[in-house]
Structures are given as structure tokens and as C-alpha cells.
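Predict structure. Input: tRNA (adenine(58)-N(1))-methyltransferase TrmI, 258 residues.
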Amino acid sequence: MIKSGDRVLVLTDDDSRYLITLKEGGIFGTHLGNILHEEIIGKEYGDVIKIGRSLAYLLKPGIVDHIFTLNRRTQIVYPKDMGFIILMLDIKDGDLVIECGAGSGSMTGAFARFVGPNGRVVSYERREKFMERARENVSRLGLEKRVTFKLKDIEEGIDETNADAFFLDIPEPVPHLKNVLNSLKGGGRFCVLCPTTNQVQDVLEALKELGAVDVEVWEIFVRKMKTNPKRFRPEDRMVGHTAYLIFGVKVSRGGEIG
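Output follows.
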């Protein structure tokens, strides 16, 4: 049963989407009319309500719905990249995952979901406002117990060792790659997110010197389709370039990379 305090995705007949946090006496305005929170509280996910003369469907929000409505100051990692990052880093229950550059917490929340109740995510962020925003957004997903936030610049060092995976999303990644590799266990995987080609080139040069293996660079494109069966075709707009994703593996068996 849907309760006060729950988040509900309201999908209308014209495919408009509204993510609402319910509260007693609340009202949410739409182009079709007002939604009274009390009309939703007590119903079940999958039920139908009326907004004016139109029907609307009460759906349980998925992580993608939460990501696109995050309270944010920075660019989020898009779902098209996020899923690929998680698979390429082989994130699974029980893993220790380190990230640097919490941003708005979108990637943090995704990692927290996949490490499961036995895993842990450690998120480094040097800007306190960004860290608190990320912490708030992860809490909205109900995953805060799986994440440790650290207000620290990794230039000062990384506290953890033998991590399973590392995600690096900062403006100048090259000076920190040695610390990243030293925090990983042998065979640990990493991903470096770079918006521009010159950053990719610099990272590749540095990784070659540091002895990382299985290094790959990917750019992900996804094209959504219109679902009218009589006029099936691509959407008029698409998300183009978001970032280059550099993956690799640490192969040293214990000890630090010099």
C-alpha cells in the first residue's frame, strides 16, 4: 500500500511523468489538473486515478526516475553510461567500490544498489556542499547505510586498499591515477570518466607508464524510438556525447605501484 512519505511516479495518458513525494494534505499541479496526494495514499502501485478527465497510472519509481529528478549542482552520469560502467567494473554483492567525485550522487546510488547489503561504497568529495547534496540524494534511494562519504581530496591519499573497483570522475584525473591503482587489489578494475579527447590521451599515456592492462575507451550512444506503431521511428532528439569512458585493470599482486 502507498503511504505518506512514499515516492510515486505518476504517468499520464499523454506520457507526461511526475515523481511525487506524498504528504498528508499535499497538492501537485499538472497541465491536466491538480493531483491530491490523499487520492493516492492508500492505493497500490499499478492503480489508476483520474486527473480532470484524463487517466493516470501510479507506478513505483525505478532508479532511472530518481536519477533524472536528483537535486543537483553538477552534471549527472547518464543511465546510458551508468549501466555500462557497472557491468564493465563487474560490481556485485559484497564488493568494495571507491569513487572520487561524488557530484550529485547518481553514480554513488547506483554503486550502492549493486554492492548489496554485504558491500560498501566509499565516496571521496572535496567540496562539502556537493558531498552533502550527494548524501541527501543517496538517502532518498534508501541506500545511505551502504555508503561512506569522506570530505577529502584524494591528493592527500586514499585510505582504503584492496578495493574491487574504482570510479574516477574529476576534472584532472592524471595526477591521481597512481593512487587509484594503489587502492585496488590485484585484478581490480577501474573507470576514468573524461569529457574531452585531450584528457583521454593524457590518461592513456599515464596508464601505459603505470602498467595497467586491458585498457579500453568507449563512448556510448543510445537512440530512443517513438512508440506509435503506425509511425514507428526515432525520436527527433537524442542525447549525444556525454563522456568518454576509460577502463582498465590493475595487475600488480600486492604492494604499491612506484
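The radius of gyration is 21 Å.
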